[in-house]
Amino acid sequence: MTATADGNRLDEEESPYLLAHADNPVNWQPWDEQALEEARERDVPIFLSVGYAACHWCHVMADESFEDEQVAELLNEEFVPVKVDREERPDVDRIYQTICQQVSGRGGWPLSVWLTPDQKPFYVGTYFPTEPRRGMPGFIDLLEDISRSWNDQEERQELESRADEWTAAVKGELESVPDQPHQPDEGIVEQAAKAAVRAADRQHGGWGSGPKFPQTGRLHLLLRAYDRTERDVYLDVVTETLNAMADGGMYDHVGGGFHRYATDRSWTVPHFEKMLYDNAQLPLVYLAAYQETQKPRYSTVASETLDFVERELTHEEGGFFSTLDAQSESEDGEREEGAYYVWTPEEIHEVIEDERDAELFCDRYGVTRRGNFEGKTILTVDKSTDSLADQYDIDESTVRDVLDDTRQQVAEYRETRKRPPRDEKILASWNGMMITAFARAALVLDDEYAESAADALEFVRKRLWDENERRLQRRYKDGVAKIDGYLDDYAFLAQGAFELYQATRDVEHLSFTMDIAEAIETEFYDEESGTLYYTPVEGESLITRPQELTDQSTPSSVGIAAELFDQLSHFRNDETFAEIAETVIETHGNRIRANPLQYASLSLAADTVMYGPLEVALVTDDPPERWLDEFGRSYLGSRVLAWRPADEEQFGQWLEELQLDEEPPIWADREQRTGESTVYVCRSRTCSPPRNQLSTALAWANRMT
């Protein structure tokens, strides 16, 4: 067998996904200059395989093909096999995933791409079985055919011509900007909300017929549109979707937290991996819905999800881990998807000693002999507590007590099962989202949640942020920080730090937010193009410099950054941040107008830029408890809570911390009145009189909507 230059080099990596392939007979290389140089020297194509640790079909293809000696021999002799963790290198993944979607109309993982030695793609797909199956080509046949074509001069010219065409196409989609900027329509949020209602599944909640994804960006658009218009249908679609997700199998009814997505229309059968980013984004929308509706169920789902993250995805020093795998070891020792989460009636009766309580638990969560997943049951809410009260002739409060007690018993038993493997990478971007969620919960539910947010922010600052260079690394694992941060790392972390300032009134968090925002301007903003690129200006040279404009599994980093620039502009004495926000929105205005749902985060940012956030300047050294309660109950959409101390000496120290020579606009001429905590509320450059009652000031703002 002809080996690649250094054999399999993945044992030098920290990523659990890459390390899982370190013992393959395939001579995997990480994506680096050494691997690219080898392809050039040997003049062979690169086979690029992209996946992540919790990906089910990645495991399947690894077991079927990458452990196979015949496959390994073909890959090693005829290609340079390169393995990429999409969570570490989202830039590489985004480029070639876009090609896959352009060519086939679909994408996903594992992503399989064949490249010329200069990184240009000429064949692409996702999962391939080793042998032909159900209309899919066999991986072995594919490798042999591609190798034969590459070594035939005429066919190789065709491959290289295709590679040039595909490269131009992906460059056009990801890097180029429109020739003419255009302001989005003023009613973009309601336009998006109407489209969301038209496309919604009003019977089962959500969108589409399966698989179904959370689509949190759409839910935030609907909530903002409802808050502005009070059209009931917008809120109805939100609550239908949130109820369906919380009642279905995507939600873990024993341990809290959400699985990745549902495979079916009724939200019953999930893909069982638990991703940090889902468990950051979903609490935010449940908290917003709780503020809008005051339904306790939504606050419960949010708090149970955050409790799950604290318990199962938190580093002992504060950062948040990335994922829990979909697969775990079953009782017979086989790795099976969902094994940790599914039940039989016999198991429930064994765990819950009281016969009536066991029956009630099974009735509540639909546990039957037939099951709903390979002969076992994924727990879903099958019966309401009031119907169970009637059925068992007990009052509803007793039903709730029984369910609380039995869930605890089941949870304790589940701890004896083999746990799903955990990917312990700590990613700056995902930690930023999680910090935002905990900080929001501190404001809405309980200020103790701020401690988890602050611990995580300190962890990231200590291990991933270079204070002197003002640069961020993306990933920390086993004592090693690696990979220059991307726009989402900077933008999501800045969003988290800013939310934590608003929850805790700690100016240090605001100062750090401003530092990150200035780094975004330096590293990612291109004044000539009027946009924010995903990779830093001096980053690695790839076939294109992408922008992240659409919401995928995480929000558009361009949208998050643009909205953040607009909000932070109120703490600046120049127009730089405001101009960046306006320019970026105008650059992509036509895209937003054409499909606001596809560009959900950009649409939310456009709304903020056009209408301005709700500005709430709060002058106090000791905020009244009623203020904090009021914020917890009030959905405010895009808002800036600009706390400042009443004590002038302390306020001067704040300005020094923020490196400001004079008060920024949001604090200018804002002082305590009548010696009491005072609030000033502004919307669209119109401000309320100073008030000592927050509720009075917010009522004024609502009249200005």
Short description:
This protein is of the alpha+beta class.
The level of helicity is 40-55%
Which outline best applies? Answer: globular
Number of helices: 27
Strands side by side in the biggest sheet: 1-3-2-4-5
Strand content: 5-15%
Major beta sheet summary: 5 strands, mixed
Structure class: alpha+beta
Mean pLDDT: 96
Cα radius of gyration in angstroms = 26 Å
Report the uncertain regions: 1-5
Calculate the terminal CA-CA distance, rounded to whole Å. 71 Å
Q: How many beta-strand segments? A: 24
Quaternary state of the chains: single chain
Structure description:
- It is built from 27 helices and 24 strands.
- A five-stranded mixed β-sheet has the order 1-3-2-4-5, sandwiched between helices. Strands 15, 16, 17 and 18 form a four-stranded antiparallel β-sheet that branches.
- The longest helix has 22 residues, at 153-174.
- Residues 1-5 have low confidence and may be disordered.
- α11 packs antiparallel against α12 (296-312), α13 packs across α14 (355-365) and α14 (355-365) crosses α16 (396-414).
- Among the domains are: 10-174, Glutaredoxin; 188-422, no CATH class; 613-705, 3-Layer(aba) Sandwich (Glutaredoxin).
- It is an alpha+beta fold and 705 residues long.
- β6 and β7 form a beta hairpin.
- Helix content is 49%, strand content 12%.
